Amino acid sequence: MQENVLITGGTGLVGTLLTQLLQTKGYTVSYLSRSSGKKGNITKYGWDLASGKIDQEAIEKADHIVHLAGASVAEKRWTDQRKKEILDSRVDSSRLLIQTIEQAQSKPKTFVAASAVGIYGTEATEIRDENSPIGNDFLAEVTKQWEHETSKAESLGLRSIQLRIGVVLSDKGGALTQMAAPVKYCVGAPLGSGKQNIPWIHIQDLCRMVIFSIEHPEVHGVYNAVTGNVTNETLTKAIAKALNKPLWLPKVPEFVLSIALGEMGSIVTKGVEVSNQKIKDSGFTFTFTSLEDTLGDLLG
What we know:
The structure is a single chain. With 300 residues, the chain is of the alpha/beta class. It has one domain: NAD(P)-binding Rossmann-like Domain (Rossmann fold, 3-Layer(aba) Sandwich). The chain is built from eleven helices and twelve strands. Helix 5 (175-184) packs across helix 7 and helix 7 crosses helix 11. The longest helix has 24 residues, at 80-103.
C-alpha cells in the first residue's frame, strides 16, 4: 500500500519540489491548505490557524507529516507586526498540528519539521553543531520556540526530526534568484563586509534529506541541513562567474543596508559557520557537494 505524506507549505519553494520527488518514489501526497479540495492528484485538507481547526481526516490518513509552513523572514521589513507574523506562523501552526495529532485515533509514524540555522544567532565565531548554544537575537528566539513546539511530537509516539535549514539555493526563487538578479544586469556586489558566512544547501539535497529522514527509522532529533559554508563575497563572485558577468561595483556598505532593511538587514550582513557532520554520520550523502557544481546546475 502506498504511504501518504501530509505536507504543510506544500505549494512553497521546497514543498513543490518535495512533492514531485515523493510522487516519483511512489508516495501519495496531501496538503494542509486554506481551502480543501483536489489539486491534480493531491488532496488538500483544510486548516485554519485563526479558528484553530484542522480537518482531522488529514492526520488520520497520514503516514508521515512534513511541516514546512511559515511566513518568509525576508519578504517584508521587520515591523513589530511582521515579526509577530513570522513567530506566530511557525509556533501557532506547530502547536495546532501537535494538538490535532494528540487527538487523532490513528497517528502518523514520522514528523519532519523545518527549523533554521538562525537558531545559532549571528555572533558566534566558531563552527556551530547541533549541541551548540542558541543565539539571542530575534530569529534565534523564533526558532527556539518553533522547535519547542515541533519536538513535542516525540512525546506522542512519533519519530520527530527537526532540520535546521541553511540558505536554500534554487533557480525557482529564494536567495539565489535575488542575488543573481543584480549580477545579471552587471550591478551585483558583495554586501557589507562580504566576510559573513552563508550556510547553504541545494534545494534538491534538502528535499532528498527530508525523504531520507522519512525512510530511515534511526534518524531522529535535530540535524543541520546544510552542505557547506561560503562567505557572501565568495558566493557573489561565484554567481558572477557562473553567469559570465563582471563584478565592478564596490561592496554595499552595512550602514546602507541597515537604512534600507532595518533590523532585517542582519540576515544579509551577518552569519555563522554551521557543521553538517551529524547528518553525514547518519548515512545521508549529498548530490551537490561543491558550490561550483551547485551554481552550474542552477544557473548554467
